[in-house]
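Anyone else keep sequences and structure tokens together like this?

Example one:
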Amino acid sequence: MSSRQIENSDRVLVIGASSVDVVGRLQADLQLATSNPALIRTSYGGVARNVAENLARLGQPVNLLSVIGKDRLGEDVLAHTRAAGVDVSAVYSTDLYPTGFYMGILNEHGARHFAVADMRVLEELSETYLDYNEFLFEHAAMVFLDANLPEPALKKAFALAHKYHVPVCADPVSGAMAARLKPYLRQIRLLTPNNIEAGVLTGTHFEAGNRDAALEAARALISMGAEMVFVSLAEYGLCYASAETSGHIPAIRTAVSDPTGAGDALTAAVIFAMLNNIEIDDAAMLGVSAATITLRYHGTVDPDLTLEKLYDEFVI
């Protein structure tokens, strides 16, 4: 079936970054100015691509709008994502930039120490590209986007979603990118920041372990226009809020192999719950379950993720 023959359905349109991830887990304390022994793995990443793959593995139809380089890494990202069940027929390849690249360093306990990313390729995710794929907005049940988008493309994505009355879910991605979403809070059905990103959006910074501050930030973002807010707090769990309710879900105690992608799995599970009319409290628990499964996996997306596995973790 041609992508331009899509009919109205429960498809999610996912827009944003695709990349190759290289993550090293230190085997001892970091020593500067020398080589450090580490366990290093490579996988396929990018916030939007991760969300798309998780949704596909949960059985949700999904289209991806993203940009890769015309290089071997881009071909590999595309092939893997297609094999996972994501419709990648509209992904754009450019020879102006290399495929996106993320490098993360974890400490010996599995917590992220620091990270760098080269996402110049997303400069090619343009208004024109989104206009060309406008039909995907028209036939989407929901749009997910990450704040890696250039600001003109971000504005265009919200405009097209508004034109076709499609709810928008958004991930702020990082403290550096989060402020890009502030003008659009009233158009966001679901917002999924961590504590740093929530602090940028509200102007009140707090530590992940401060549950009361996280709940207050979630409620503040509701008052600023977002419809539902899920604030990830790493090992401290998740705080969430809507106009009707708010709450906290503690993290599930588990060994951490690699935290990369855990937040994206949480987001995908909550989107899946929303599309299947699951109440917000249960959606939050499904999100924590998805994050837990991903934390244990030595990679960015667990290829064995299923709804059954989510409910198996549903023991909070």
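And example two:
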Amino acid sequence: MRDFAEDEIATRQPPSPGLSAVLSVLLPGLGQVYSGRLLAGALWFLVTSFSYWAILLPGFLVHALCVWSAYQSAKYWTRY
């Protein structure tokens, strides 16, 4: 009987910073989730949603910060 742990090691490919940014453009926080930061993704989604609801202009600014954060998260993940 083969033991999976001895024969194969499952490795995860590092997230793509570009794809992470695109996912956050489509849905705020999704890029962070893709990068493995679930709590950050949920917080970005809530903050961006509230910003759009409160006033439109700050919503765009917060959404842009969310996209930048997703890009940086994936970029940082690939560095280490």
